[in-house]
Amino acid sequence: MTRRLVFCSSVLALGVCLGCPSGTDTPEPEGETDHGPIDFTAFGQDRHAVGGDWYAYNEAAGHVLTPFEQAYIIRDDRVDDPSAFAAVSLSSYYDPDTAESGVFTFSYAVWDGADWGAPTEVATPNIKSDGPYCIDLFAGAERDCGTDDSWQMQLRIYRFFVQTGPLVVARPGLFLNQVDDGTGDPVVYAATYETTLGLSDLPDPTGLDDLATLTPADFDDPTFDYARFAADLPTAGRVLGTRFAGPGFTALDDVFFVQDGLERFVTMQIAPASDGDPSAGIDVTYTIRTLDAGEKTIPTDEVEAETVTVPMPDPGEVQYVSFATADLEVEASAMAAARPPNVPPTENTWSFALEWDGPDPSIRLSSAAALYNATFEDNATGLDALPPTD
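^ thats the sequence. predicted structure below, dont judge the formating
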């Protein structure tokens, strides 16, 4: 990645608060040096087809995770017509003998073209100590998550940004294989089916619809219809996705805030490195301020901006971006155990990933990050913009 410096003037010198919530244009009071408390609940996060949204959390009962009353119907388009369907129901996240967390118990059933077969129950190794668990539901066999593409479902620990903290926590999640068909289109999909009867009350999967390829209406809540078949992270679930560039892959002026972890508060703008040429990559111009996580404030003093050109990865590959390094490249130690895209580096070591969505470059946020579009929400311009406050 290539790097160059840009000078960013002080927000106080402008006399306006370009990043304040709509309807406010008051600068920080004279003598004030901090801005906040920042309203992180206004920031958006990417939404997976399942991800960590499979359980209810009970803090009062000792931080217990209880699976929702729902099943996940999974389709694998690699099988010739008709497509292959399997259904999964998670029943526990605790070792039945020791009650230690990290051990999933789930049942799965396979569609035979006319009916659902008898369920099979599986207890996984402890994913906290033994790493991700991947299974080929049609072969009934565990697979290597990083080197064998034949699986459909992965259970693993990932890092997740909790907006109300703000803090980053370890969270167990269910993910789909992100293998594609060679053209960039995914081949494994999942739909959520609400049921209190586990796998004994499942619909004919051939009657379920696919999720339309749509962008979210808002930047803060990219939800979609989970009852439809969707890829692991569909276009409709991406806060930013392809929306950082205009028609024909041209530059926009949008200003984004990215909170990735607990210390770095990033203000950035993204532009094509060459208008009309996605393969040339993107220019990321950014400033970094240190967040006081306890007070939820950032300093408003002058910050020098930098611009780094991030190259596009090859089709099917992923380019991870980290604001922890000057060249935006993820540390080699964090990449050592990674096997993209299905075994990414630990989420709090990268901020976003650049990949292809068909013919278009797309941005996938780290689950340990959240994003706010200050231009869309507040008509803010320039890297001197400030985030919304509580």
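Residues 334 and 346 are 7 Å apart (CA to CA).
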